[in-house]
């Protein structure tokens, strides 16, 4: 799952604090910086590495609409504003969404899911070209074990290591769960819990609290439940 690197730009500190609070609840979002200055935001976006900007519209120096035109194509934008009259203009600069203040977490989450979905669409062709195997570092210098991706049932993050559960064995590595996640095709592997990534092709059934693979129950965390079942809904008959 791609981690979306975010910037917040709003000339009202309370508005920034609210978005920071919402953002901290979403595991696939990472806050890079917050600023009350549109010019500072422009500089940060120009430096690169910003995937998504939560952008106010009425700001000194540059309005959000002016800033969005300057950075068009360099990042995705969700406008956060108390002024409904700019909605049409926001879509002219390809904003992903337009949140009217005050907005609740549910509306915020709906908007960021659109961003996440757009990234999945963009990498769809790339995902098809992902290698069908990876080499996992095990104990000892230059010790690696080859793992076929289609044999991975689920991956479990433990305190000091990660266990990759295959059909017939498990591989232990000191890599982080995040580093392994980055190598996996996004159309098959889904995070169900902060400590678990599952392969949908190996899931045999689910309930409200768990997914089941090879007779083992794997927990579904509250943070990941909505996204997981949205994906499952897309694949149901």
Plain-language structure description:
The chain has 237 residues and is of the alpha/beta class. Helices cover 32% and strands 30% of the residues. The chain has eight helices and 15 strands. β3 (52-55), α3 and β4 form a beta-alpha-beta unit. The longest helix has 18 residues, at 105-122. It is elongated. The model is unreliable at 123-129 (pLDDT under 50).
List its traits.
five-stranded antiparallel sheet; 8 helices; alpha/beta; five-stranded parallel sheet; OB fold (Dihydrolipoamide Acetyltransferase, E2P); 15 strands; 2 domains; Rossmann fold
Give a brief description.
With 237 residues, the protein is an alpha/beta fold.
Q: Could you name the CATH homologous superfamily of the largest domain?
A: Response regulator
At the fold tier of CATH, the topology name of the largest domain is Rossmann fold
Number of strands: 15
Relative strand content:
25-35%
What is the CATH class designation of the largest domain? Alpha Beta
Overall structural class, as computed from helix and strand content, comes to: alpha/beta
Radius of gyration: 20 Å
DSSP summary: helix tally? 8
Tell me the layout of helices and strands.
Elements: E1 4-9, H1 13-24, E2 29-35, H2 38-47, E3 52-55, H3 64-70, E4 76-81, H4 87-92, E5 97-100, H5 105-122, H6 124-128, E6 133-137, E7 144-148, E8 152-157, E9 162-166, E10 170-173, H7 177-181, E11 189-193, E12 196-199, E13 205-206, E14 210-213, E15 216-219, H8 222-235
Parallel strand pairs: 1-2, 1-3, 3-4, 4-5
Antiparallel strand pairs: 6-7, 8-9, 8-12, 9-10, 11-12, 13-14, 14-15
